[in-house]
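Researcher: Structure for this, please.
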Amino acid sequence: MRRTLALVCTAAVGLTGVALGAPAAAATAPQSEGRSGGSPVQAVLDELVVGYVPGASADQRARARGRAAAHVTERVVAGAPGRREVELVRLPQGKDRDRAIDELLTDPAVAYAEPNQLYRHQAKPGSGGSTVAPDGFSNGSLWGIYGDTSTPANAFGSQAAEAWAKGSTGSSSVYVGVIDEGLQVDHPDLAGQVWVNPADRVNGVDDDGNGYVDDVHGWDFASGDRTVYDGGTRGSTDDHGTHVAGTIGAVNEAATDVPVSGGKQVGVVGVSQDVTLISGKFLGRNGGSLAAAVKAVDYFTDLKTRRGIDVVATNNSWGGGAFSQALFDAIARADEAEILFIAAAGNNGTDNDATASYPSSYALPNVIAVAAIDKTGGLASFSQYGATTVDLGAPGVGILSTTAYSGWSTYSGTSMATPHVTGAAALYAASNPSASASEIKAAILEAAVATPSLQGKTLTGGRLDASGF
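Model: Predicted structure, token format:
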């Protein structure tokens, strides 16, 4: 399956996202694709992400930077045996970016050099959030959660309610990363669902030795601090990240006979009622950079490989830009760690087989690319698709979920479809704790229900069925 990059959000109040995807772990894209992929690349001015050959010394890296008169801003990836050191470098003001890339590539220590691309979600004005907690399940507004026989019912919902009826409601021992904006940790429907790092107290010390001081609920890679929810103080309301989180794992007892969240009767509910969410915030007021995205992906890989935290998947409702070797390599490292990378296919209504949309188009085994359908089972008019590059469809039109400032909003987009699949992965992992990432992915794709609008538009030709495992 081939894969690519793009990002989008539209609103029925709202937001949406795009996805990324790519090939096998050690492959390197041609530099021409890494620069633009055939389209203009939005990037941080005067910054490049540079990957060096494994084992390149500090002196060799300095020599390479000198060819472009660049200096180091920060280390993005630490070098290790068989792993490239990756640096974020700054160019002299006004220096031609492509010329600088060519200069860097003349040095044998440089494996690749690429713009520090920007990724964004794009939201349009809509109906907005409610200040009154909705009874989101029983009033028919949570169609994406419903199943064939739930009350209310919708045959084109994710079938999460059918899974609950079978006793599959999730587990707090399953961890999911939300790589996005931040999320409101104390939202009434998310309280108790967000990770509290037992190994790093709020004391100004990096107790767990991962390089992030007091990362209690995750980390803000956009601002470089521990505050994963800013609530609008930096120009971003964190609505998108909070909305995504709610679809994955909001809690509300009114949704099911299974007691959850202390008997709460109002609000909304996500696909996996019991799950632990970890924030990898990298989208800020001006979007998010490639360097920040790579660090966010690697953060979750480190939590699993070094700390033994069972991170099953990351949700990636974002995109925009060209192929990135740095991001490809980070997702490949997540694949080696058995972490799924679930990504939005994009909202431009185009064919990802013809024009890749990253990150959902990265052809890596752990990538699941998700299209959006509406409540009648139709492929959403905005949704990107691809018979070989988009895996399946999921509810993505008129999706009610949590938003910042303890609110609720209805958004549309492949950003909204993606967390339905992430929640389903969490459900499967809870019931099958020894399952590998490939087994979870196979179960999700094999359970997809054939849907006319998705025939010839997705790899499975079907839509998500969270009760079909």
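Researcher: Any notable elements?
Model: The chain has nine helices and 18 strands. Residues 143-463 form a domain with the Rossmann fold fold (CATH 3.40.50.200).
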